[in-house]
Amino acid sequence: MVASAEFFIRMRTKLKKFASLPYILIHRTLMLTGLLVWLAIATLAFYGYQLLQPIPTVDNISFSQARTLAEEKFNTRWVSLKNVNRDLIYSIVLSEDSHFFSHTGIDYDALIAALGDNIKKREWRFGASTISQQAVKNLYLSQEKTLARKLQELIITQRLEAKLSKNEILELYLNIIEFGPELYGIGNASQYYFNKSPQEINAAEGAYLALLMPSPRKYHYTLYQNGNWSPALSKKHHRIIRDMRFKELISNSQYKSYNKWRYDKEDYL
Fold first, then answer.
1. 179 secondary structure, DSSP code
2. For residue 149, what pLDDT band results from cuts at 50, 70 and 90?
3. What are the CA-CA distances from residue 145 to residues 86, 125, 127, 150 (Å)?
4. Considering the entire predicted model, what is its pTM?
5. Cα separation of 238 and 232, whole Å?
6. Which sign, positive or negative, has the C-alpha torsion 155, 159, 162, 166?
7. Is residue 179 within 8 Å of 187, Cβ to Cβ?
8. Where is the Glycosyl transferase family domain positioned along the sequence (predicted)?
9. What average pLDDT does the segment 211-228 reach?
């Protein structure tokens, strides 16, 4: 009888523990949910605070004011758009933002595609920036990669597009973009890499400059200093030349010649 009593006592204890398991699970689930909600609120508050910081105003800006700001911020040799070879202009536009002349500052199709790619890869890479967005980022904002900064960029880009013409935005962009370590603007880049003025740069040379732009310091070392034409860079150079031929910006003979072209520093001394 004693054994039976002890048996029932142990069983009752186990049943009590078993019965309490759902409550423990519910309690822990609620705690975890609360923590996640708190983190979400904190994150939204953080980005909301950043987004509400004063946004540089461009509502009343003129092209001359934007140019003055650019010249103060960057050590650039200013070149008017009319003094840049058409082939150089289009080699960069086709590489960086082929829909530049048709969109209103933001390429929504590219933005949605980039967002889908980010979700797929579970990362945020802040891609799909148009020429207008890049001009805004370099001229008015920091280089930090945050969602708040990206949202500010989108807002200012829309305002800038409403104030300046496409040619004015393009001229700003070409004069402030980086082509190497502390090497800003198409004037400095043309002189540094080719010992020429921007008016003299052809499509093949322009496509070479376009290769440097995504990561100018990295490619200044690998491509310019070491002459490392990786398969990916060769493919991109060919694509730019092909696109220019497709749009009839260069002749068929130029297309064939430029596809064989390779940069050699000795040719430009």
1. E
2. confident
3. 33, 8, 11, 7
4. 0.77
5. 10
6. negative
7. no
8. 71-244
9. 95
